[in-house]
Amino acid sequence: MPSLNDRFTARVRALSSEGSGIVEHPDGQVFFVSGVWLEEVGQFRITGFKNRFGFAVLEALQEPSPHRRNAPCRHHGFAAGQCGGCPWQFVDYQAQLAAKEQRVHRSLGRLLGEDCILPIIGSPRTLGFRNRAQLKTDGERLGFVSAASRHLAPVDDCLILTERNRATLKALVATLPNRDWRPAKRRDWTTLDIDEDTGLGEVAVNRRLHFRQGNDEQNRVMREWLGQRLEPLDRATPVVELFAGSGNFTEVIAAAGFARIVAAEGSGDAIEQLAARRLPGVETLVGNLFADEVLERVRRCCPDAGVLVLDPPRDGLKNIAQLLPKKHRVREVFYISCDLATLARDLAVLVEKGFRAVAVQPLDLFPHSPHVELLCHLRLR
Question: Phi-psi bin for 8: left (phi > 0), alpha (psi -120 to 50), beta?
Answer without folding.
Answer: beta
